[in-house]
Amino acid sequence: MQTAALVLRADEIKEDDRLITALTEQLGVVRAFANGAKKPKSPLHGACQPFAHGELELTRRRDTYVVTHARAAGVFHAGLASELSRLALAGYFGALCAALAPQEEPAPEHLRLMMNALHFLNAGLRPQWLLKAVVELRLICLAGYKPDLTGDGPYLDCVHGVIVPDAGARRVLLEPPVREAMRFICEAPLERAFRFTLPEEGLRALSFASQTYLQHQVGRIFDELAYWEGLK
Predict the structure, then answer these.
(1) Residue 55, helix vs strand vs coil
(2) Residue 192 CA from chain centroid, whole number
(3) What is the value of pTM for the model shown?
């Protein structure tokens, strides 16, 4: 099968091979062997590196996939490599997507989200706090856990995904601008979801709310997030 793809991760195995984790339009998250991809002259080299995007031709062999042909349209690299926190945040996005995107079924919206987020991150066109919140909330919505932000009260119950009037464990205070930003991210068309502004304090509060909600919904804390936070 030939499909549009974004490489989320590339692990080196053996002497010349890689095991890539790719987000594909047709098959969702796929782990595939790219034989010889570490060799600079390999036809798979450019397309089978982290944050490369283009087309992959995948062949299924028993219970694994193998990359038989690849064409790189580009690589998100220069901007990410210029700042360690950008590279770390890209790694977090990749880990989130690998965990939350479907497998063995189409994932065009996930691919569009990641391509947009990495474009803005690589070019430095949006604050990292903003990009993080958009990716977290859009991914959790795509996974079927969209929060209901229409109720009365200032707190988000991160377990049940509803607005409540009282403080308590696993509840996050949402100031009105942060609440509106969360609603906008969850409901706006993707091409508009990155187009809003908040002061830095508001973006940090938004980022905290989005990650807290996501962590309670998936029951997991990502090491990649802790690394990024250590750089900020």
Answers:
(1) strand
(2) 17
(3) 0.95
Q: What pLDDT is attached to residue 14?
A: 81
Output phi, psi for 37, to 5 deg.
-70, -20
The token pair that represents 65 in the structure block: 């996939």
The token duo for 52 is 């490369």
Question: What pLDDT is stored for residue 232 in this prediction?
Answer: 78
Please tell me the predicted confidence (pLDDT) of residue 222.
Answer: 96
28-46: per-residue pLDDT in tens?
999 999 999 989 899 999 9
CA 227 – CA 232 distance, rounded (Å): 9
Using CB atoms within 10 Å of the CB of residue 98, give its burial: 0 to 12 exposed, 13 to 18 middle, 19+ buried.
Answer: middle
Give phi and psi for 149, each to the nearest 5. -105, 25
* Closest among 203, 202, 185, 186 to 194, alpha carbons compared: 185
Beta bridge partners, 29, equal: 23
Cα–Cα–Cα angle for 153, 157, 160, rounded to 5 degrees: 125
Handedness of CA 45, 71, 57, 10 (dihedral sign): positive
Structure tokens at 153: 């009260």
Inter-CA distances, 125 with 117, 118, 120, 132, Å? 10, 10, 5, 13
Residue 30 belongs to what H/E stretch? Answer: strand 28-34
Weakly modelled stretches of the chain, pLDDT under 70 = none
CA distance 48 to 19: 9
